[in-house]
Predict the 3D structure of the following.
Amino acid sequence: MKVFSPTHRFARAARLGVLSLALLAGTAACGDDGTSSGPNPVPVLEAISPPGGNSGSTDFTFIVLGDGFVKSSVVRWAGTDLQTKYVDRGQLRATVPTALLAHPGSYPIAVANPAPGGGISGTISFVLK
């Protein structure tokens, strides 16, 4: 059985979105809800907003933009899993607790998708001043 997954990129309110169309055994499914019938994709991290902040601040939420996010995706801050809210396959929201904001520096942000399939995205640095 062949599975086809063409992807069409389109601009969407200040960010890129992805519309996927999967054809399986003569039926079509189209969605942007993070569900799929196959293995999880490897996530792609494109941007974070804001890209930095001030050390010593209280917990806050930032936006992660990319592609291939699923409902069980987790944003990682220097290897520590953050509380993550799935918005759609191109956007997540992650909350950084106060304890991780204590020291200035550059912290790698990544997104992890679980098995089956899945994997870890590349990183973008979040800079604390």
User: Anything to note?
Assistant: The first strand starts at residue 3 and ends at 4.
